[in-house]
Fold each of these.
Amino acid sequence: MYRSARYHEPLLRDLNEGQPPSPMPKIDVPKTLQRTRPVALPVLEELQLMRHFLHLSHMNYGVETGMYPLGSCTMKYNPKLCEAISQWDSFTLTHPNQDPLTMQGTLQLMYELEQMLCEITGMDAISLQPAAGAQGEFSGLLLARAYHEHRNDTARTEVILPNTAHGTNPASASMAGYSVIEIPSTPEGTVDLKALENTVSEHTACFMLTNPNTLGIFESEILEIARIVHAKGALLYYDGANLNAILGKARPGDMGFDIVHINLHKTFSTPHGGGGPGSGPIGVKKHLESFLPVPRITKKKDVFSFAYDYPQSIGKIKAWYGNTSALVKAYTYILLMGGDGLTEAAEVAVLNANYMKQKLVDSGLYDLPYRALRKHEFVLSADRLLNLKGVRALDIAKRLLDFGLHPPTVYFPHIVKEALMIEPTESESKQTLDAYIQALITIAGEDTSLSKAAPHETAVRRIDEVGAVKTPILTWKALETAVATPKKET
Amino acid sequence: MQFIPNSSIKQAMLNDLGVASINDLFSDIPPQLRTTALRLPAGMTQQAVEAHLRTLACKNKSFYELPSFLGGGIKPHYLPAAVKAVTGRSEFYTAYTPYQPEASQGFLQAIFEYQSMIAELTGMDIANASLYDGATALGEAALMCSRLTHKKTFLIPENISWEKKSVLKNYTHGAGITIRETSYDPQTGTCNIDALTRLITDQVAGIYVENPNFFGLFEDHVEDIAAAAHAHQTPFVVGVDPLSLGIVRSPGEYGADIVIGEGKALGNPMDFGGSTLGLFACRQEYLRQLPGRIIGMTKDQEGNPAFCMTMQTREQHIRREKATSNICTNEGLCMLAAAVHLAWLGGTGLTELGKQNFDAGHHLLKAITAIPGYTAPFSGTHFNEFVIHHPHASTLHTELLHHGIHGGLLLEPWFPALKDCILFGVTELHTPDQTKKLLTTLKEVD
């Protein structure tokens, strides 16, 4: 049985030995800005500091702790070599405004990575600048706007997406100034072509789609979708969160997508870092290339440079050139895998998902709404357990933690009741998959008190998230003055 | 295959499923769309990949091979080994966003500590769990001001980096926000307070000032700007270099309502402009309009203190198109590095580091302007970056490179009025030898 470390680890400020605050040295800053005392930060010795953060690390679950099949997150193994190389001084101790002649190694790497990603996605040009998937989406929508505006096609105010879309899709569209229209899915779990045809119009800027979609189903009608969207002058956007499923098997560029984003921290194994830094390069077809962010990387006579002279460019989406260390890791990963290795990754990711799906459906405990064949992920419904035993998807998720397994994504996509969205990735062995399957079967058969009171073996027991909202304690200082949330402002 | 364990038992697993071939699992892809093979090199061994990357790495000149005195918002700083020792723990770096709090208490507590220290540093009530970088933090701040005030004009100083201006324009365009620039005083190099106050009307959603500003200068009229903003109920947004806060007052003390900044100087390497960290802190009453993640302290069912993501109804995964921002993945590990670095420094250490940077800047400015031909165009007090004028600034850059030194950033492309002006940056990391080499070379080329 698994058991997480459980420390009652004090807050950093309570580790403070209480040294008297040292007086401010005299510094000749303007009078209006004179600081009167040092910032109230804890004062620690390095050993205390290391013990604190080591204890915290022991109370944190990562891919190397155990299986982490969060759907749509592609929690694959992050090869150590990629990490090690990305930390070399030659890459990290470099200033973004250094003369490009002194940065030919990184520029070559970025240039070649762009080419690799073009080949993998079937797009014509790539910008590595966006910091994460959502920023890639946002950039892509700015490109769509620039494209339409350039053609004096200014009545396009809407973005359409299916009701299975990731939450970032509508949020990015809204931030880019578009109104969002959600269309339903068919009983097969795919885009409803009739609904799409009825919705797309001369007001549509873009249709955003993940393929395979968030149910893990490949949108087989993609060519027809592209035809419908393009016939009305709109663009087709590819959310690359699920690209791992089709590496070397099919390419968004061939399917008719005009803009794609790629999550390097998913498909190309740069780690998630507990929430970042990520990297969300965007790729486009020729007709959108002139709008890409600057700088672009160019190569002339074996010399790589940054080029800024693209008058139609949307400009910058992030300071400098992107999360460089993630670029180094992704490049290293692609070299390690090679074209064949990437294809093998997709094949085994899909095999692993379908293996787990089949075994769990065969158990008769979980249901699989929508079409049976899945790609890299599948979404089970635990609704039957809710009706039979009152056990919710959330309870199952918490109970999985007691088995030392990270739960799947739960309650997404919204069209599946009590959703468990499972993406095993190619990194896991059959043994691990079997253990995970067995855990889900065991949980379904257990006394419900176990799952409802779960987790039991983690650093803390089930957390009062409602209380956290009612009384927000967001800093050390607020601990002393915690009050209930003010009413929502009008 | 080193990273795909089931590769060797593919067929057995397929047989188990009653599937004849792996391609049957891809039968839902229309035949005309099936890729035959990726035109990429075959996979390489780890040793071969490492060797290849070494040849690339050799084509870069890092700080120790080519000492650089570039300013512009990024500078080299000393990174304590303890920071990497913590961020190198795979429990942290291979984790996802802490959606399952019971299995993520370590990271969640670390974020809570980060939020606490950033709030303390900036003098604000709350801080979020990071944005992408300082430039996007400015974009998010402008959007937040507009949501708070329902107004559509945002004031920025003329002298911020062109990259920030471009990012800001992209972030605010969709919301219909107009950006207006306020001029700087050509004598001091700091904000022209009279011009700024004239622009503040009841139609202004927010006012942004950087301190120190892009020319490295401290803005000393911040209280007047705060008063002018607040007279119109306009939020006052201040951009900071966190290291400067060891020696100057926190913006909260002089009336800031939102504090943002590029936080990479805390615990993160220059990384050629990657590994950025968007700082974002504000007043408690803005909580419901805050972009990005925030961690709260609560209890578990046994009453033990515990941490979780909170106020999630602001976020895209719940609120979708009505979210306060689209941000999902942020800069988690960079934030962890910042938390460790701040705790490693402590308050006194941060002050000492701030002082070292202040002194390094002042000594270098004094030494450069002592050389005939080099002048400082602005009279304001600077931190660790400063502007120098030299009649042949661009040839100077090439000459310095020949001598194995990287000079400052030429400002003329972005600020045409600053012909032949160079933005230098210097920190605690620059050794006396490196500085001496710079000064000797500057003398020689003149």
Amino acid sequence: MKLTLKIWRQGGKFKGELVTYQLDNVSEHMSFLEMLDVLNEELVQKKEEPVVFEHDCREGICGTCSMVINGYPHGPMQGTTACQLHMRHFKDGDTITIEPFRAKSFPVLKDLAVDRAAFDRIIQAGGFVSVNTGQAQDANSIPIEKEQAAEAFDAAACIGCGACVAACPNSSAMLFTSAKVAHLSLMPQGEVEKQRRVQAMVRQMDEEGFGACSNITACEAECPKEISVEYIAKLNRDYFASSLGSETKVK
Amino acid sequence: MSWFSTFLTSSVGRKLVMSLTGLFLIIFLVVHLIGNLQLLFDDGGEKFNLYAKFMTTNPVIKLTSYLLYAGILLHAIQGWLLWRSNANARETKYAVKVTRTVNTNSFASRNMGWLGTIIFIFILIHLYQFWLQMKMGVLEMVTYEDVEVDNLYYVVAQAFQNPLYVVFYVICMVVIAYHLLHGFQSAFQTLGLNHSKYSPLIRTVGRIYAVVVPLAFAFIPVYMYLQG
């Protein structure tokens, strides 16, 4: 299939603009990133600078790939990362616009690569988790209700890719933060520091300059791991309980 | 900063202010509607005028009305501040952007700031036209069984004879309907009340409320205009 690509180029000779490329001989079996690999090989052969984009595992579990495809973070397929999106979902002759995840807190490094260190700092603000070391415990020595474990696991599915921020009209990081707060606070191991953690992580999220949540739910619709905004409601509950109802004060 | 101001200025705390004031205004709308429905009695405005008298003189209602003015201002100012800071969180806009949502109205949820601004302007016009006239004491008086009251009914009935004003009023009610369509369920989500057992009910009640209440408000001027 033949495609017209409009790709955001920024850095080097590009000031930040959409550049149009024609690509012939795209196989429908390629993944979206493989299609970009083909484009980059052509660019290198022409002695042009290849398009910078981030990728790592290419199997949808690392959260490294990050691009907005035709207006959808990770592309139009729901519950799918860009690396797991295949070209069979596009038609011959399509024009595809590819942009980086956009947010003030995710500055563009080059082309489609953005700096998501703000997420790392939110995680760091969460601090340590009291897990006792020493002899391995018997798996059944800490009983956890099945539903509770499932809820924690659904939150833990967050790969921290930043699609929620990219999708949100407010550039809010609330879905990410809520998932990271919930997957620990729902477990007895993570419960010990839960009061301090929720205050510290919300504060860091605000300091990073992300917008506030206005419950649009675009984050849930675009999340490749389909994390529910129910976790944002839970974050709010935990934050109210910790800020207003506990002795914990985060300086 | 004290622990309380830290809480109130956090993104979660600021949203809580929006949620609580929003729910207060949602309850107020019902009270307001009950009053407006008095206009539909074919009694030359007696019931409506007596109701207006009660609402402006009863001390409990008076106290609540100050809470209401504060609530409207707080909701509007906090909303504008959030709108501005949220817009600033993305400097370069997308060339192509599609917003898909789950269980919410995509148009309403993305445009709460614009919808709210229109509603605020409507409220200012609305207050100038009816509330201020009554407060300034420039209305004609009318007597029912030895009780002298302002004839607010006359001003309202006059306003609703202007077809342009009726159209403007109906359009504003559509704007309020969209604002409520997102606002109702959003207020509960912000309070942390999102639960698989209760959320479907909250969403259904919210949708019904967002349609029925503005529709009833809009029906009154249309009916009075057609009655002549």
